[in-house]
Predict the structure of YgjP-like metallopeptidase domain-containing protein.
Amino acid sequence: METKIIRSYRRRRTISARFIDGIMHIYAPAAISDEKLTKVINNFKRRFEKQKLKKELKTKENLNEVAQKLNGKYFGGKIKIGSIEYATNQDRIFGSCSCRKGNIRISYRLASMPQWVRDYVIVHEMAHLIRPDHSESFWELVSGYKLAERARGYLMAKGLEPNEEEDIEI
């Protein structure tokens, strides 16, 4: 990623970044050390790369369509989903949902896994919109997905099965 650094004596503390014609312009105070500026630039690069990845994933597949198909097939179309999107800041968990708003966020890592694993996580999060816990009735809803056990096994074999109590946002 090409970077252009613009230092200013008028700027005292803040550092900002913008993309202009494919070049990342960094606006920084003239007095900042190169070491500190390098760390900040690396953070900006990571942030811009995640934004780019999220945009690519959004155009690659429509999670709303996927969720609506799964909703119809496994929940009779009765779940109201506020929004569903990939999240680039979910590194420890695969999905989360806000039960009040009906918003579902799916980890970007699932885009590189088999489709049936991603679908399992979507079904899992959709089930939370009915049962916001991990009770027996919740797992009955999830087990309606025909590849649920296989997907859980896949995630466990990869060493990626999340802590079940951490994936709910109420």
Q: What stands out?
A: The first strand starts at residue 3 and ends at 8.
